[in-house]
Amino acid sequence: MAKKNKLQKFLSSKYLYRRLVIILIMIILLIFIFSLIKNTINSNQEIDGQLIESTEMSSNDSALIETTHPITNEQNSIDETQSGEADAGTTETTIEVGSAESTSSESTRQQEASMDFSKIPYYIEKNEQRYNAYLNSHLSKTAEEIVLAVNMNHDFDFYTNIIPVTEPSVLNVICNKYYQLSSNFTPENLVNVTNGYFVNDGKEYKLSQNALDAFIKMSDEAKKEELTIKIISAYRTYAYQERLYNKYKANNGQAAADRFSARPGHSEHETGLAIDINDVSQSFENTREFVWLQDHAHQYGFILRYPEGKESTTGYMYEPWHYRYLGVELATKVYESGLTYDEYYAKFLLK
């Protein structure tokens, strides 16, 4: 009877319930902790497996891309003295792993492979193979850009793939780092520049008659607005250009010399149609005379030959003083096109 009373007293004790609640809570916590540990272990195993699989896939994809399809991009900022648009550098490319990206890449390559250059107005059939070769290393370019670049010979470095000028006396003759005049060429109708129209530095200047006549008209018109426009450099012989270039190369190195001086046979001054005006320095662009020439030179048949920001196209640094005579009609067309003469020639004059 005493044991029964003790049991009843124990069961009716308020402390019993507290102890049972505490025990129950501890059991629940233990179960939760055990479950959490188990899930964490399983999750880590799954992540490790995915990482291994992903690493293997990435390695395989990278090896495939490297060996079958190197991606190149034309350099946005290249040294204009050493190479044309043909120069290209390898660009870093991030490839996302996934079937959608692979399908898209394959589709793009198929479109590129079937690019129809013949639809471009300035397409030249004999250049078809060069267009396709240039496309392979310049995948981001349009068909128009590719045809223009190849027509300008920019699929070759400057001063490579030299083309002899066959008609050096025509008014629209092109002379640049790809087209070379003969060492024995002398322009027709060369005349001495009239006194008062050149900088009086003790030298004698010559120019083709038609270019000189146009310059005199332009200078006289500028004079009405109290502007002074005079010739500071005109026709040069092949031998003179050779000596000049070699001097610059000896003093500055070939890379620097090629930025501002043409190699013999490649200077527009040898055509008798090119002039330098007033001051052979960048500061000339800050003068009223330069501003006037920008608006009026084409009206007399002259164009700014080496504009600012076109070094990679022309091969020469910006020369605000260098002008080329093309005749009023052609000069106006080039001016209105906004193109350099190299670009205009490749689009509209090259056959």
Automatic annotation (TrEMBL):
<feature type="region of interest" description="Disordered">
    <location>
        <begin position="75"/>
        <end position="111"/>
    </location>
</feature>
<keyword id="KW-1133">Transmembrane helix</keyword>
<feature type="compositionally biased region" description="Low complexity">
    <location>
        <begin position="99"/>
        <end position="111"/>
    </location>
</feature>
<protein>
    <submittedName>
        <fullName>M15 family metallopeptidase</fullName>
    </submittedName>
</protein>
<feature type="domain" description="D-alanyl-D-alanine carboxypeptidase-like core">
    <location>
        <begin position="206"/>
        <end position="327"/>
    </location>
</feature>
<dbReference type="InterPro" id="IPR009045">
    <property type="entry name" value="Zn_M74/Hedgehog-like"/>
</dbReference>
<dbReference type="InterPro" id="IPR003709">
    <property type="entry name" value="VanY-like_core_dom"/>
</dbReference>
<feature type="transmembrane region" description="Helical">
    <location>
        <begin position="20"/>
        <end position="37"/>
    </location>
</feature>
<feature type="compositionally biased region" description="Polar residues">
    <location>
        <begin position="75"/>
        <end position="96"/>
    </location>
</feature>
<dbReference type="Pfam" id="PF02557">
    <property type="entry name" value="VanY"/>
</dbReference>
<keyword id="KW-0472">Membrane</keyword>
<dbReference type="InterPro" id="IPR052179">
    <property type="entry name" value="DD-CPase-like"/>
</dbReference>
<dbReference type="InterPro" id="IPR058193">
    <property type="entry name" value="VanY/YodJ_core_dom"/>
</dbReference>
<keyword id="KW-0812">Transmembrane</keyword>
